[in-house]
Amino acid sequence: MIRRSPRSAAAWQRCLSSPRVMAGAAIILILIIVAIAAPWLSPHDPQDQDLLSVLLPPFWMADADPRYPLGTDTLGRCILSRLVYGTRIALYVAGLAASGAMIIGTVLAILAGYFGGKIDWLISRAVDIWMAFPPVVLALILLVGLGAGVNKVILAIVLIDWTRFCRVIRSEVLVTMTLDYIPAARLLGFSHQQIMLKEILPAVTPLIITMLSIEMGIAVIVEAIMSFVGMSVESNVPAWGVMIADARTTMHQAPWSVVFPIGAIFMTVLAFNLLGDGLRRALDGRLVQRNG
Amino acid sequence: MVLQARNLTVSMQVNGEQIDVLRDVSFDLQPGKVLGLVGESGAGKSMIGRVISRNLPKQFAVTNGSLVFEGRDIIHGADTLLASLLGKRIAFVPQEPLTALNPLMTIAQQFGEHLDRNGVAHAHQLEWMINALQEVRLLDPKRVLSSYPFQLSGGMCQRVLIAMAFISQPALVVADEPTTALDVSTQATIVQIIRRLQKDHGTALLFITHDLRLAAHVCDHILVLYAGEVVERGPARAISKDPQHPYTRALQAANPSLDGPLTRLPSLPDNMPGISGFSAIKGCRFGPRCPVGDSICCNAVPQLREIAPGHWVRCSPACQHAEPSTAPLIEHAAIRDNGAVILNATGLSKHYESPRNWLGRRDGPGLHAVRPMDFTVRAGEFVGVVGESGSGKSTLARLLMGLEKPSTGQISLDGRDITDTSQQTTQLRLDTLQMVFQDPQSALNPRRSVEDLVTQVMESHLKAVTPEARRQRAQDLLRETGLSPELIHRYPSQLSGGQKQRVNIARALCVTPRLLIADEIVSGLDVSVQAQILNLLLDLKAQRQIALVFISHDLSVVRYLCSSMVVMRHGKVVEQGPTEQIFSNPQHAYTKALFAAAPPADLDCVWPPEQTSL
Amino acid sequence: MAFLALQLLIKRAFLAVPILLCVSALVFLILRLLPADPIAMSLPPGATQADYDMMRIAFGLDRSLPEQYLIWLAKLLHGDFGGSIFFRRPVMELISKALPATLELVSFGFMLGVLIGISGGLGMFITRGRWGEQVLDSSTTIMMAIPEFLWAILLILFLGVLLPVFPFIGRLAPDLTLPASITGFLLVDSALSLRLDLLISVLAHMMLPALALAIGIAPLLMRVLRSSLLETIHEDYVTQARLRGISENRIVIRHAFPNAALPTLSLIGVQGGFMFGGTVLVEMIFAYPGLGNLMIDAVRNHDLPVIQAVALIYCVLVLGINAVVDVIYLAVNPRLRLKGRPA
């Protein structure tokens, strides 16, 4: 039998009863299903061009073609199919990039916050240097250096956004370090490694989970930006950013075609933000206390 | 009549159920008189101040009774009525002076805002402020006025707030624990200033405190509250000299005395129920803890009875108060010279360098937290370390435990040098020394169960044990510290303050140390729970022959436990010796001032003394 | 006060030097990982090997990496960013044209964002517990889920294409002639030369990109201001002011807001830095001739000298805005100016 502390049981309960968490989780679940089931859900191959039916409008408009529920783009490709396949790229980048940034950021944050002194100085200065760049600028420079490609985008996000985790988690570690149970653990013979893993890590875990969710949303945006400027996937691969870049050129003739990929990004980022925000409210003890 | 309460009842709505958090409270407060509201935390004493200011927390509401201020109903009156009274006819002195002033405004700006409201013309404001600050004995009023709150000490902020409270010549001042957040030595001065202003202006004062002895000196009348109920009400002298309710008696007896023979403190079991526990109690709310309670008062709420003119007690008429039993005397055997020395520190000091600025220079001289001192603890000896905040007493504890590196000096344990913190000395310390931290809230990881907490040391890389052995050990430790072994699956958030502190102590006992270092471990507790913990420490001394370094700001507690003591101030030892000797004949001016700052048990002694200065 | 502010700025400048050195070295290093050859890309078809070698030598690409860096740094100290490989012009000239455009746009967007953020945060606080808060809260959620560059596209779609209210290409209507450049800031120049038509056109062109940038920073400001107001309203000093009978309006204005504004202010510094990042895409989408557009062009053409220079300028701008916010912080927070209570 697993005994759960009343604290985590209550936090779990709050998560389940939070509309934000549930809504966010539900959308993300749907997105995951869409990504997995893409071949069955999409009516066409996302690359198939039908040059006889370019810029078809979506189904509710007058001269829509039922074969293309959301219409077609300039090359006559099915927008719905491209949208569905775009989910794969978005979630792939979100999952890998956010986890990578989280791992590097958290490890460095705990080392810096726990040991302080020179280690902290070094890590904090590195964060300072990183923070002097607007993230987009650093991402562009990295992709110039590394070359374009979706895996390069993931690497770039990890190399840039570890600081986001590091900064926030380090200050949370410092807050935890002021509590007496840390010196108490030292006096009870705990090694540094034990203290970091058994006392500090659990204390910052709620924050890490929250930030991970938010970071996934950010990763989706960064990937979209990079495919928009042509630094991510090959230009024929269906990614939402590529779709937006294509549709932008025909905004006057076919304004709807730009709305769908923007809507897809909006829903995805919204879901990660809702989940993160809901988790923060449910897991943050201080916030819970204040709300009664 | 300034303030009159009749059958005042405040209730809280929880899941559709109505719980009375303040039940049936009545009192009269005449002009120029002081009424004390006395009770432990959670008794509901602050609720009355909140009723007056209509500042009740959400879900709380006055459900019955009346509160009349100068003939006007302030519960049902219009909001504008209250708005016209606050800051003019009714004033408040807060508990935490440092946070009660806006950090971004100077004292003059905040005082000026208050004077604006009271219609003092701008041209006269400076004069008014200077006069008012001189009345509260702030020596340099101009400097204080141009300061921001963070530039002043807690005592100075409190004086400013007192001056602001009295400047509108209010009919009523409500002071909620005005000295609790301050150092002991400031207490007497603050109380004295409030008393003088109150007398000079003929103001009625509602004095809210947890300290019965302090209330007895300050107040004309006292109202003792327990779990939202008035248990005793009457003249301060009568209640203090001859308390009638078993709770009042227990409250008074739980405070160790500063003179006379030392007897073991009688302590009540458990602790006061929380609000959620109120509804389960059918009769007298004190019933479950009452040493003399019977079936009658446990099933029906007793009425307040007038047993002498103006002296009311809520206790069943059939209650036969047992004669105060003769508690066993406590002997602090003179161990000073024959016990073996466990811990010895010579020339121990700690100096914190001020941080380097961006040019790599140090801005100031740094802080001498502890100046070179010698310190010895013998086997089975209880040593008290007394000092106020900033005296260096907590740094001393951290030095002895190896949590800080000393700047100079040596520490030895059983004659072996442990000044450096290598693997070896850490092991040595771990086997002999343990520390109990001040605040269990911070010292107990909220994510660990009680079992994991008390046996945490068995998890360390230095020890290895089976889960069964661990559970067994946890249960033994809980029993030894007076806790039910069933608590092993609980988490700190499910324990009361006293239980948490026992877990905190049990954890330190797990390694069977020969010396415990305890840093202010009873300062956050209510007196009745404090007595339990103090007795637990005495029992441990008897059973385990354990030695203790007991750090505290409270002289009476140190006298109760310790055979020798050290008095520290600004990092320096000012006096050191056997406890009884220092108590009967203090040498240093600071020690004498500390004694003068504590209200004596003897009511005929005038306290606060007319002039106290430090 | 002025002395302290000056001291702080000097200290910031002093600390910025090592950061900028590291930043430039880092950029230099990353860009030399480049798999493609920028010289080969920029040469016209039919160029000979000799042309290629000459170009390499001209741009100093034949030397070792540390040498290249030191040469670049030495030139930088003389205000020389080198020459653009793609545009065939001095980088300094490109930047001096683009920088005022970006600064103008960012200032406008920043003011707009802070205005929306503060009024929205106050609005959320004042309507707390009522439907007004719900509406504003939902709007922050929506604003946060769409990045600036997508806002830029949506704004063009709705306020440019479907409902043509604002222009969305460039800095100025094509039929208007530019006055002789006085400062390079078109708003200032048109005002100085008393050209109202020009001023209106410039403002109209800035409206949509500035709005897109403002939406990028406003929702977080709204949320942080709201939550710190909710926090300060429970502070002891607010309760104590209430107990002195101070009116609720005065409490919010004099006591709660100044204290709640402190965390918001430090956030504004961070957000201001992010806003410069936002300009990269927004400027490109609006064909706005600023640093961001220059950056994108340089990135697409692997124009290393331009990328290096623009990246460095961005970092200077971010550090600059942080320093300015620090000075404001110093001015409003007495705790940083004065010594604490005596020990």
Topology:
The complex is a heterotrimer of chains A (292), B (614) and C (343).
Chain A: H1 6-16, H2 19-36, H3 38-41, H4 79-115, H5 117-131, H6 135-146, H7 150-177, H8 181-187, H9 192-228, H10 240-248, H11 256-283, H12 285-290
Helix pairs in contact in A: 1-11, 2-4, 2-11, 4-5, 4-7, 4-9, 5-7, 6-7, 7-9, 8-9, 9-10, 9-11, 10-11
Chain B: E1 3-14, E2 17-29, E3 34-38, H1 45-52, E4 60-69, E5 72-73, H2 79-85, E6 90-93, H3 107-117, H4 122-135, H5 141-145, H6 154-166, E7 172-176, H7 184-201, E8 204-209, H8 212-218, E9 221-226, E10 229-235, H9 236-241, H10 246-253, H11 275-278, H12 295-299, E11 304-308, E12 311-314, E13 341-352, E14 367-378, E15 382-386, H13 393-401, E16 408-413, E17 416-417, H14 423-432, E18 433-436, H15 440-443, H16 450-454, H17 467-480, H18 497-509, E19 515-519, H19 527-544, E20 547-552, H20 555-561, E21 564-569, E22 572-578, H21 579-584, H22 589-597
Parallel strand pairs in B: 3-8, 3-9, 6-7, 7-8, 15-20, 15-21, 18-19, 19-20
Antiparallel strand pairs in B: 1-2, 1-4, 4-5, 9-10, 10-12, 11-12, 13-14, 13-16, 16-17, 21-22
Chain C: H1 2-31, H2 38-42, H3 49-58, H4 65-77, H5 91-126, H6 131-145, H7 148-162, H8 186-192, H9 196-232, H10 236-243, H11 248-285, H12 291-300, H13 304-332, H14 334-337
Helix pairs in contact in C: 1-13, 5-6, 5-9, 5-11, 6-9, 7-9, 7-11, 8-9, 9-11, 10-11, 11-12, 11-13, 12-13
Task: Give a quick summary of the entry.
With 292 residues, chain A is mostly helical. Helices cover 73% and strands 0% of the residues of chain A. Chain B is 33% helix and 23% strand.
Instruction: Report the structural category of chain A.
Output: mainly alpha
Number of helices of chain A: 12
> H/E order of the elements of chain C?
HHHHHHHHHHHHHH
Helical proportion of chain A, percent range: over 70%
Q: Low-confidence spans of chain A: pLDDT under 50, at least 5 residues?
A: 286-292
Task: Identify the biggest protein-protein contact and residues per side.
Answer: A-C, 42 and 51 residues
Shape of chain A: elongated
How would a crystallographer describe the biggest sheet of chain C? Answer: none
From the alpha-carbon coordinates, what is the Rg of chain C to the nearest angstrom? 24 Å
What is the succession of H and E elements of chain A? HHHHHHHHHHHH
Beta-strand fraction estimate of chain A? under 5%
Name of the CATH class of one domain in chain C: Mainly Alpha
Mean pLDDT of chain C: 87
For the sheet with most strands of chain A, the description reads: none
Query: How many helical stretches of chain C?
Result: 14
| Helix coverage percent of chain C | over 70%
Number of strands of chain A: 0
Low-confidence parts of chain C: none
